[in-house]
Each structure stands twice: as structure tokens, then as C-alpha cells.
Prior knowledge:
Blueprint (H helix, E strand, L loop, with lengths): L2 H11 L3 H15 L5 H8 L3 H24 L6
Amino acid sequence: xxxxxxxxxxxxxxxxxxxxxxxxxxxxxxxxxxxxxxxxxxxxxxxxxxxxxxxxxxxxxxxxxxxxxxxxxxxxx
Length: 77
């Protein structure tokens, strides 16, 4: 990934975690029946594997947020 793209994703991921979680919550819970994103977040505090899984899902959320930003039309001048 190019540095500029990575910086853009980092700036998005630094934003509201609640918003980013809303972009992945439904998909995560569909992929992991009987489990919630909150369960994963709780386990991530003490499990290296779950921390990595949460990081991967949050990267998906950041990519979705970046795609939304690119898709929004610029305001008229």
C-alpha cells in the first residue's frame, strides 16, 4: 500500500471508533454466529489472536470509510 493511502486510512481509523464499528458489526456477527463484535473487543484485551482479528476487521472498516469519503461528491463552489 502506498504511504499516502496508508496515512489516509490511519487518519480515518483515528476517527470515531463507534462509526467504524457500525460499518462492520453486521458482517462480523453474520460471519461469527452467536458472537458479537463487543465479545471480540472484550477478548481482544487479553488474547493476541483476538487482537489480530479485531485489527483486521477494523482495517476493513477503515477501508469502507475511505471508500465512502471518496464516493461523496464535493460541495459546489
